[in-house]
From TrEMBL:
Protein-lysine methyltransferase that efficiently catalyzes three successive methylations on 'Lys-36' in eukaryotic translation elongation factor 1 alpha (EEF1A1 or EEF1A2). The lineage of its organism: Eukaryota, Viridiplantae, Streptophyta, Embryophyta, Tracheophyta. It holds the Pfam family Methyltransf_31. This is EEF1A lysine methyltransferase 4. Residues 63-185 form the Methyltransferase domain. Residues 1-22 are annotated as: Disordered. GO terms for molecular function: methyltransferase activity.
Amino acid sequence: MAFDDQETPSDSGRKETAAEFLPKTTSAYGDPRYWDKRFSAEEHYEWLKEYSHFQHLIRPYISTNYSILELGCGNSRLSERLHGEGVIDVTCIDLSAIAVERMKQRLKEKGLLGIQVVEADMLDLPFESESFDIVVEKGTMDVLYVDSGDPWNPRPETVSKVMKVLKGVHKVLKPDGVFISISFGQPHFRRELFEAPCFTWSVEWKTFGEEFHYFFYTLKKGRRSSEGKQFSIDKCDVPAMSLFHDELEDEDFIFRTDI
Ligand SMILES: C[S@@+](CC[C@H](N)C(=O)[O-])C[C@H]1O[C@@H](n2cnc3c(N)ncnc32)[C@H](O)[C@@H]1O
């Protein structure tokens, strides 16, 4: 499956299609100009699935007194949904200045002034260490995988960008914080970076969705057994992809996507 828009039920139950916003090539998803143009015309679109589809998975991780950071909010309603669960301290970031402006406007119109919206790059998070209980992203890191080449052996630029995001998230999470990544990407294409040896988080995942399964990853900081080793964020070797390739040898994975 390509990294592509799909028909998604809106909150009202009406079907919306984003066909008019489809780019000519998937590389556009990595281009901030594409997002600016799209967000200046598009009111609302939920990538992957909207909140009700994974509410049962995310709820056990949130608490009303938590501080939550959402990466790459676009024009999604995820932050509103989290706020609706009683979480007061919600911040969302996006690289697109237009997405940020429009999100601020929408939240103002709805009287949801408590949600902070910040123009920022997830590769360079402008927050202090240990600021958030939860960091969540939905379909945002998947953007880094467009044009990543062979999914078993992604380009060094892709690996470097993904590792930058992960290191930043690891840093801004509180010592027992959780990173929730909601993604198209299957575990055998995500695990090797999520489980890089410098991170103290333990990695688990569940799936949701009917026809196509999406992945709900939880990376729980401070829960990984160190096995006598010291975690060092400065020295972070990425394990060989082939380890995971071997695991799959006898399995029939029909969804061998590259994102
Ligand atoms: C596939 S959309 C997902 C939007 C939203 N999370 C959702 O679930 O509907 C990717 C979003 O990531 C944003 N984005 C792309 N690169 C980013 C970066 N480096 N830092 C922050 N946001 C980024 C885009 O502007 C866009 O809003």
